[in-house]
Amino acid sequence: MSSPIYVAIDTPNLEKAQALAGQVRHHVGGLKLGLEFFCANGHHGVHEMMKFGLPIFLDLKLHDIPNTVAKAVQALHMLEPAILTVHAAGGRAMLEDAKAAAGVNTRVVAVTVLTSLDDGDLLDIGVGGKTEDQVARLADLARSAGLDGIVCSGAEVALAKQAWPEGFFVVPGVRPAGGAMGDQKRAVTPREALDRGASILVVGRPISLAEDPDMAAREIEATL
Ligand SMILES: O=c1ccn([C@@H]2O[C@H](COP(=O)(O)O)[C@@H](O)[C@H]2O)c(=O)[nH]1
């Protein structure tokens, strides 16, 4: 069975991205390419990364009016990403149109509450109450809009899976015990996230900033 770890390739530099993918390719289940990489390298960069033969997760977190998002998703068709993200806060019509525009081999998953946010940050943007309640609301919206799953933190994934047993749950912002949190606020360990129901784990800096990224990936894999 392939590893549930998707390594976040967060660099605008294609050579560095290829070097990291080359180092960890045997100990991860997929490559996650985000805005930083896509803005710098576009479709060409994604094609280059596809050569590693691993599933590609395009984490573009699309969020705009339904027509614009649907057209953007169509424009990604030829890349056939295994996973593509949109923001759940874009609303029902945007989610429905994004899913309808995606290829059959692409899982469209909705970002609920970014793992870099906590209750206080949500209050700043006018969302009162607990983060887990907002995740539950947006997960419900994503499910009823026909999406394949959600992105949430390991702190909420158990509740979300209980409400949506067949959903696909992407958990980023995980940290090995004692690892540097950086800007993440709701981190759990990779093992905890899996035990609580994560379908895949996204791991960035704990691997990419390690002196030996392959060893770091192996060490995380060994905890699962
Ligand atoms: O809520 C979210 C959604 C996406 N991400 C992305 O995951 C990685 C995490 O990187 P680390 O270095 O392991 O913190 C990064 O690419 C984010 O854009 C997220 O962290 N939280």
From TrEMBL:
The lineage of its organism: Bacteria, Pseudomonadati, Pseudomonadota, Alphaproteobacteria, Sphingomonadales. Residues 4-220 form the Orotidine 5'-phosphate decarboxylase domain. The active site is at 59 (for ompdecase activity), 61 (proton donor), 61 (for ompdecase activity), 64 (for ompdecase activity). One of its GO terms (biological process) is 'de novo' pyrimidine nucleobase biosynthetic process. HAMAP family: OMPdecase_type1_B. Keywords: Decarboxylase, Lyase, Pyrimidine biosynthesis. Substrate binds at residues 10, 32, 59-68, 115, 175, 184, 204-205. Pfam families: OMPdecase. SMART domains: OMPdecase. CDD domains: OMP_decarboxylase_like. The keyword Glycoprotein does not apply. It comes from Sphingobium wenxiniae (strain DSM 21828 / CGMCC 1.7748 / JZ-1). InterPro entries: Aldolase_TIM, OMPdecase, OMPdecase_AS, OMPdecase_bac, OMPdeCOase_dom, RibuloseP-bd_barrel. This is Orotidine 5'-phosphate decarboxylase. PANTHER family: OROTIDINE 5'-PHOSPHATE DECARBOXYLASE. GO terms for molecular function: orotidine-5'-phosphate decarboxylase activity.
